[in-house]
Specification:
The complex is a heterodimer.
Chain A: H1 8-19, E1 24-25, H2 26-36, H3 48-58, E2 61-67, E3 73-79, H4 81-105
Antiparallel strand pairs in A: 1-3, 2-3
Helix pairs in contact in A: 1-3
Chain B: H1 3-17, H2 22-43, H3 48-59, H4 62-101, H5 104-131, E1 144-150, E2 157-158, H6 162-171, E3 175-190, E4 193-202, H7 206-210, E5 216-217, E6 229-232, H8 234-240, E7 251-254, E8 257-264, E9 277-280, H9 286-293, E10 301-307, H10 313-330, H11 332-335, E11 340-345, H12 346-354, H13 362-393, H14 395-403, H15 408-444, H16 459-484, H17 489-495, H18 503-539, E12 549-555, H19 567-585, E13 592-596, E14 608-612, E15 623-630, H20 634-638, E16 642-645, E17 658-663, H21 664-670, E18 680-684, E19 696-705, E20 720-724, E21 732-738, H22 743-757, E22 764-765, E23 768-769, E24 772-773, H23 774-781, H24 783-817, H25 819-827, H26 832-861, H27 877-903, H28 907-913
Classes of the chains: A alpha+beta, B alpha+beta.
Chain lengths: 110, 914
Amino acid sequence: MSGLDLVQGTLDVLILKTLSWGPLHGYAIAMWVKERTEEALLIEEGALYPALHRLARRGWVESEWGLSENNRKAKYYRLTPKGRAQLKAEMSEWDQYVAAVGQVLRAVSP
Amino acid sequence: MTPAERSKVRRFFELIVRGRRPEEEVRDELDFHLSMKVDALMVGGLSRADAEREARRQFGPVDRWSAAATTETRGYERDRRWRDRWSALWSDLAVAGRRLRRAPAFLAVSLALVALGVGGGITVYGVARGVVLHPLPFPEPGRLFGLYEATADGQGFRLPDYPTFRDWRAQADVFERIAYVRGTGARWISPDGTERIVAAYVSDDFFPLLGRPALLGRTLTAADAGASVAVVSYRFWRERLGGSPGVLGSVLNLSAGPVTVVGVTPPGVGYPEWATIWMPIESIGGAARVALGQRGVHADGRMIGRLKRGISVEAAQAAVGALTARLAAAYPADQGTFPKATMLPLTREVLLSTSASLGDPTQPLLLIGAGLALVLGIACTNLANLSLTRTVARRQELAVRAALGGGRWRLIRLVATETLVVTGIGGLLGLGLAAAAIRTIRLHSAELLPRAEEIVFSPAVAAGGFALVVAVTLIVALIPAWLSTRLDPEQALRAGSRAGGHRDHQRLRAGLAMIQIVIAVVMMVETGLVVRSLRRVLDVPLGFEPNGLASIWIAGFGKDGGDGDSSDRSQQLISVFRELNEAVAAVPGVSAATLVNFVPLGGSSNTTKVFLEGEVPDPKNEQLAMPMVVAPNYFATMQIAIVGGRAFEAGDLTPGAARFILNESFARRLWPKQNPLGRRLSISRAVMGRADFGEMLQGEVIGIAKDVRQFGPETPYPDQVYVLYTANPWAHMRLVVRADRGLAGLLPALNQTVRRLHPEMPIRGFGQVGFEPLTDTLAATQTSRRLVAWLTTGFGIATVSLVVLGLYAVLSYLVTQRSREIGVRSALGASRRDIIRSIVWEGMRLAIAGVVGGVILAAFAVRFARGLLYGIEPTDATSFVVAAASLLGVSLLATLIPAWRAARVDPVTVLRAD
C-alpha cells in the first residue's frame, strides 16, 4: 500500500467535515472522503466504522436508521452541535499548524 | 419537553423499532456498506464475484472493524446508562427540592424532627460511649478477669492476699498469666512541695498480662524484681513531669526512696485506673513488705488473670473453685470463711467504678439504650406520618402516574427522594447539633461525669450517627412509599379532590400518633420515677450534717517515711494528730475540728474482728465490724446523735481501759433485746502489717451512736465500733473541720496551717488539693444517679415535644383535608364552638387512647427499671398520674391551633374552590 498513513484524529476530522454538509450513511461518507482526497489518503473503508461509533460515543455525531437512495435500510449519521463546535476547533488548529509548518518550509534564509 | 425528556422518548421508540443488540446493528451497517460497494463495482463492469472480492479488499478485515465498532457502541450505551441514572437522580432531587420549598412548614417540622432525633441520639451515644461503654484499652479484653475470693453462699467477696496469689499462680493453669497489684499511697517530694500519688506495686506478669507496650521507654519485666524503677502514667507524665521524652532515666524522690523512670504508659491506658506510678512488687518496703508476706492481709491488693485461649468461663470457674476449696482446706484459719472464687470480667469492674451508686452498671446502659430507641422511634413515626400525609395529598398525581403505567419502583423513588432530602439535610443538622452538644458536655461536665475528657465527637461516633441517619431514612421513606404504591388509581381519580384521604391511611396516621403518645407516657413515667428516686436519695438522712464540713487526709509520717510500727511511733502519731487538730481548730472561723480514720462518704473502709466477752471464738461465725478511730469531739462535730449512754470525753483520752461506742445497727445485732451499755468486748487491732496487728483491745461499751450513711445515701449502714485514736492509733487519718459560715473562704488558711506545721504532709494529690468539702464528696457519690436523672429528663422532654409536634401535624393536616366538610357544616349552621369541639375531640380521642395504652405498657415496663429506683415502688402513683396528666395537657395544646384554624374556615371560599 502506498500513500499517506492516516492518523486516527485526522480521520475523525475528515468525517466531521464530511457530515457538516448534512446527514450521510457510512458508505456515502467513505465515498465522499475518497473522492475529495483523490485517493491520496489510503484508508481501508472499514476503518471508518470504529471511528464513526467513537464519534457517537463522544457525542459529536448521532445516528438514526433510515432508507437509502435505493430503498435499503441504512444508518445515517448527523453532526451534533457539539460535533460542529469540535470541527470548528479542529479546523482552526489545523490552519495554525499548516501556517506554522508552511512558514518553516518556505523560509528562504536560515 | 426538556432535552432529557426528549432523548428518553426517542430512546423509547428506538427500542420498539429495533430493540437489537449492538453487534447485530453494526453487522447490518457493514453489510449495507458492502452491498452498496458491490453494486457500484458491478455498474463499473465487474462480475458479481469479482466485485465482492474487490469490495472486501477495499473494506479491509470485516471482523476486526465490526468488533472495534461494537466495542465503541457498547461503551457508549454504558456511558449513557450512567449518565441517565445520575441525571434522573438529580432531577428527582430537584423536583423534591422544589416541592419541599413549596411546603415550608412541612420542611421545617421534618427537619426539626430529624435533627433533634438524630442529634439527640448521637449525643447520648457519644456520652455513653465515652463514659460508660468505653472499652478496656487492652487486647482481647474479654479474657481479662478480676479474681476474688467468695464466701460459701457467694454473697461476700474479698480481695485475695499475696500468699494466696502465689498459690493461684502456681496452681491455676486455666490462666495464661495471673498478676497481683498492691495499691498504696506514696509521697512524692517534688520541687513544688510534697505531693500524694497513688502507687501500684505489681508482680512481674502484670504488664505482659495486660498486653499493651509502653508509649515511651518500656514496661516492667521479671528482670526488674527488687530494682528501684518505675513506669509512670501518661497523665502524671504530662501534667506533673513536664511531658518531655527526657523523663526516661530521671529520678523521682518518693517517700520510700528514689526511683528511676523507665517508661510511660499510653494515654488512657492504665490499670487500676487510679494508678499514677507502677513499681515492681519486690521493691515494696517497710511495714507493707511485712504485710505482703502475711496470710489474711486483704488490703488494697487485687489479683487479675488472663484466661487461656479456648477455655470457657464456666470451665475456668470450675477450676478456680476447686483450687480455692483446696486452699480453704489447707489454711482453715485464713481461707475457711472464703472457700469459693469469683471471676469478675475486668470490663465490668471498670464499669462498676464509674457507677458506684447504682450497683449494676447494665441498668443505666439499658435505660440509655431504651430511651434512645424510644425517642428515635417517635421521631421516625412522626416523620413517616408526615411523609404519609403528603403522599396522600399527592395521591391523585401518583394515581395518574400509576394509571399511565409508571412502575411501582419509579413511584417509590418519587416519594422516597423527598424523604431522602429531608433526612439528609436533617441528619447533617443533627450531626452538627451533636458535635456542638458533645463539645459543650465535655467542657462543662467535668464535675458531673466521670471520664468527661473521653467524651469526644470521634469518627466512631460520627459513623454511628451516619448509620442512624440511614436507618431513619429507610424506615421513614420506604413505609409510606410502599403504601402509596398500593393506591387504587381508579378510586383515587374518581374521588377527585373531595375525599378526606384514603381511609386506611387516615387510620394508619392516627395509629402512629397514638403509638407516639403511648411511648411518651412510658418515658414520662420512667422520668418521674427516676427523678423522684433522686429526690428521695437527696432527702435520705445521712445521720450527720455534711454542710459546713471539710476534711483532709493526714498521715503520721516520720522523717523515715515509714508507717508506725512501734509503741514509740504510736505516741508520735498521737502527738502529730493532736497538734494538727488543735492548730486548725484555732483558725478563725472554724467552730470545731476533729479526727477520724474513715470519714463518712470518703469511701475507704476496713474490718476488724469483734469478740464478746464470755463467748467462745468461732472462726466460722466471726463478728466483723468497721473500726472507727476518732477524736472525743467526733460526734459533736459531725452532729451524730448519741442515742444511748454517752459520747467520748476528753478525760477518756488518758491511758487505761478502752471504751467503745457502737452504732445502733451493730448494737441491735449483737444484743437484739438487751441493754448494750456496760457490755464488754474486744476488737483486734486492725492495722495490717503493724507489729501489734491482731492484738486484742479490750473494753466496755459506753454509748450508742445513731447510724451514719458511711458509704453514701444508698448503701446500708455498716456495723461500726468507735474507739478513741489514743487507744488504737491509726497511721492515716482525716482531719475534719466544721465552719458554719464561709467554709470555702477558709480552705486556703486551713491548708496553710497544715503546711506550716508539717511541710512533709502532702497537701496536694490527685483528685484532692488540701481540704475538701464533704458536700463535694456527697455529690460525687450521686453522680451516676444524677446522670441517669438528667438523661431520662432529657429523653422525657424530647419525647413529649416530639409527640406534640406529631399530633399537631396530624391534626393540622386533618383540618386541611376536611376543610370542605367543615365549610359545609358551618354553612349548614354549625357554630365555631361546635367545630372547635369536634377537632379537639378528634385529637383528644387519640390522646386518651394513647395515655391509657401508655399507662398499661408502663406498668409492665417499669419492672425493668427497678434497679434504678430508690425509695419508691415502680408502681408509684404520682409518677403515673403526672405522666398521664401532662401528656393529656400537651395534647390538648397541640389540638388547639388546628381547631382554631378550622373554626376560621370560610365556607364560601372552600365551597367555591371545588
